Amino acid sequence: MKKEKNLVVIQLSGGNDYLNTIVPYESGLYYDYRPNMGLKNESIIPIDDKIAFNSNMDIFKNSYDADNLAVMMGIGYPDPNRSHFRSMDIWHTAEPYESSSIGWLGKTIKNLDPSGSNPITAVNFGKGLPRALACPGVSVASVGALESYGLYTGVSGSKNRDILLDTIDRIYQPMNLEGMPSIRLLETGRGALDGADILSEAPKNYNSSVEYPEDNPIAQSLKGIAQVASARLGTRVFYASHGSFDTHTDELKNHSLLWKQLSTAIDCFQKDLKEQKLDDETVIWIFSEFGRRIADNGTGTDHGSGGVAFLLGNSVKGGLYGEYPNLDPAAQLEGDIKFNTDFRNLYSTILEDILDV
Fold first, then answer.
1. Fewer beta carbons within 10 angstroms: which end of the chain, N or C?
2. Does the global pTM surpass 0.85?
């Protein structure tokens, strides 16, 4: 029987610098535009005779060599916007021209579970709810630390918390729906309660020899994802964020640290997936809202357009997809990279080939 695939989304918040992630190390223009920021020698891991990984992405190079990493080059959308908020909204809703409150993954979750029978079809690891997961009638659990996850965990005194939870539970009991000011409020509240109950069980049966570094936030998020996935609770979409990649200053240090953290986290996660026998059914999608300017500003880079994204997993057909953007002045977009791959094409591939939508 064919196993359903799970999607793990990692958002590189803040605008990841494409040119110092996938480095055009044979381009003289790259070093002309980045006299202070250009990576070379021990700071890169060559992919071919033109481009290289940042040296802190050794785990990604290993996956690339194993044909399990797809590098999506020059990814973006028409009429790029350099605002974090607007650009992220576009990526979250797949609506470049209109404002929407409904996320592309939220709609997907509704398609996967039309009746809303599973309140944890999607789980976000982090604070708040990414707009990508928002959709009326769709319940999504947002988790900080899985071991302490639940409602009102900050209330002092177990008796006080039990009283409060009992009150909330009674408020969200399905009764006469005509008296409810909002069906959506009922569904959301009930989903939060049910989701908290289900997720609290996930760590109890989790057993792994993999040690995730405790001082690495994205590693801890991926550990939580591994715990929930291994419990096989019907969760199909997992979401986590890493960053900030908004590297206006001191980029060489900060950008390297962020990619080192992510590489370490991915290494742990992949080993854990294999141990849990989840490696064939899990695909990781990594993206950022935009890239950075082609020219450095001295110690960093400013908001740009065009970027790079990654698909990673045993079922992924690895390789380079799209074209590396031309850095020639005539090919630039006001000092930025011109995109050549619309991100919505990648979303279509993810929906059809991974989530069977």
1. N
2. yes
